[in-house]
Amino acid sequence: MRFEHLGAQPRIHPDAVVSPTAVVSGDVTIGAGCQVLHGAVITAEGGPITLGEYVIVMENALIRASATHPVHIGSHVLVGPTASLSGAVVDDEVFLATGVRVFNGARIGTRSEVRIGAIVHLRTVLPPDSVVPIGWVAVGDPARVLSPDRHEEIWELQKELDFPGYVFGLDRETPDLMIQLTERYGAALARHRDDRRLD
């Protein structure tokens, strides 16, 4: 399913194959040889998404851009089933395995592997040829790759990256943080009420 969002329509190369149950919404460019499988969602929430050539987006993966965090995925990249990528840059020849999470402002270098269930956190930079092991967390610039049992170290690095401020423009110490966050974000997402289905 293709949707016009905020006046922008997806541009899909004629050699690309997009499943009829995938959703492609807004300012999305999909290059030659790409495959977007069943249930995948590629949604440009006010910022562009670009997929290079021969990108495979597998079942139920989510790729999301925002006005302040566009997405660029290079060529010959595999985005595994149920992976989630938001507002990030992924260079060529990268493997994002099943269930990985890549957050806003992250950059993943050429030929890197983010293995099953691993996380590349907010504003984290992985150099070329990096590996994030199964279930591990990459955080910071330069990235530190830590096992999930090292929560305190991860949090010390993560809190400086300021997720609520960077993504939502809100101070973490705001007393009614979740009220402000959900109302503000909900208003932005409500722009989908004017989307137009194209197929």
TrEMBL record:
Top-level division of the source organism's lineage: Bacteria
SUPFAM superfamilies: Trimeric LpxA-like enzymes (SSF51161)
Record-linked InterPro entries: Transf_Hexapept/Carb_Anhydrase (IPR050484), Trimer_LpxA-like_sf (IPR011004)
Gene3D superfamilies on file: Hexapeptide repeat proteins
PANTHER family the record matches: DYNACTIN SUBUNIT P25, GAMMA CARBONIC ANHYDRASE-LIKE 1, MITOCHONDRIAL-RELATED
Protein name: Gamma carbonic anhydrase family protein
